[in-house]
Amino acid sequence: RRKEREAERVQALLAAGKDVYAGERDNAGMPDISHLCDGKGRPLKHNRSCHVCTQGNASWRGGFFQPLGCSKCEKIYCPRCIGNIQGKPYAEHKEEIDQFIEEHKLSYECVCCENKCACQAKEFEPLEVISSSADKCAVLRVSAKHPFKPGDKVRVTGHHGSCRDDELKKGEWAVKQSLSPTSFSIELDLRKGGGKGGKVEMVKLQKHKRWGWAGATGFGIQKDAPAGKKYCPPAKRPSGAKDAPPSKRQAAAGKSKVEAKPAKAHLTKQWPQSSPARGRARAGA
Questions:
Q1: Distance between CA 275 and CA 260 in Å, rounded?
Q2: Helix, strand or coil for residue 283?
Q3: How far apart are CA 203 and CA 187, in angstroms?
């Protein structure tokens, strides 16, 4: 029934002219985990997106390729992230990673089940929020040394205070600046008031990025590339390369610049000490 509802929603979006993925979203070749149950007692099914980078068939548009599913939980891992976890970028070790997936596709035990995942690291455990205040942006003070750097995404839960502080609990916020080992600011204008309590934690994807398991640390498959085609990162500029010649617009802009004219002589004339004109000028002043 769920698939029928999804198909109806996709068809409605396509009819409205939206660019929506209409292919198969489930992944084949997964180990059987139907003997396991979720929190509601239902047979467990594998997720549709990678646990590390959150990409799936719908987001990669057919370039997701064969992911590796865990035999003890519902998590799956795309080839790119498997390579990053092993320290072998997929673009450079494609055959080796593909062989690893083929050999372990029915017996793989993921890093989460081994308690070795970045999202389980003690350095990223939730921190208690002592207080929040407004100083152009929200400033949070926590109970222990924080691991946050500018640009990290964090989520705040259980915080209470002024009505404006309720916005802290909505969505994810980027860290703006680390003010001290136990305080930092985020990209949110509290305007007034403050609060206390609750916890703050780095979001799961940000933890994986900090460990180099997701993001630009490993080049995978281009989103819209045909199957089997590698993603080639942009070529870096050679260190000895010369700058390109200026365009016509840049050349015209350079010509239009007028050099500063020297000051007029009568404004820079140095009067001699015994000059009568200097004496008259002083008397007039």
A1: 31
A2: helix
A3: 15
In angstroms, the CA 104 to CA 118 distance is: 21
Q: What 3-state DSSP class applies to 93?
A: coil
Residues in the chain: 285
Give the model confidence (pLDDT) of 35-85 as tens digits. Answer: 888 888 888 889 988 999 888 877 765 556 788 999 999 999 988 899 999
What is the rounded distance in angstroms from the CA atom of residue 61 to the CA atom of residue 197? 42
DSSP 165: G
The number of beta carbons lying within 10 Å of the beta carbon of residue 255 is: 8
Q: Quick one: which H or E segment has residue 81?
A: helix 79-85
Enclosing H/E stretch for 135: strand 127-135
Can you read off the two tokens belonging to residue 235? 């070529």
The DSSP code for 37 is B
Strand partners, 174: 153
- CA atoms of 243 and 228, how far apart (whole Å): 36
Report the Cα–Cα distance between both ends of the chain, in Å, rounded: 95
Whole-number Å distance between alpha carbons of 25 and 166: 36
Q: How confident is the model at residue 113 (pLDDT cuts 50, 70, 90)?
A: very high
| 248 exposure class (CB count in 10 Å sphere: 0-12, 13-18, 19+) | exposed
Alpha-carbon distance of 40 to 57, in angstroms, equals 26
User: Taking a C-beta distance cutoff of 8 angstroms, is the pair 67, 31 a contact?
Assistant: no
**pTM (two decimals):** 0.66
- Strand, helix or coil at 161? strand
- Contact predicate 203/153, CB 8 Å: yes
Closest CA to 207 of 144, 152, 143: 152
Q: Which residues pair with 133 in a beta bridge?
A: 139
Q: Which of 147, 146, 166 is nearest to 156 (CA)?
A: 166
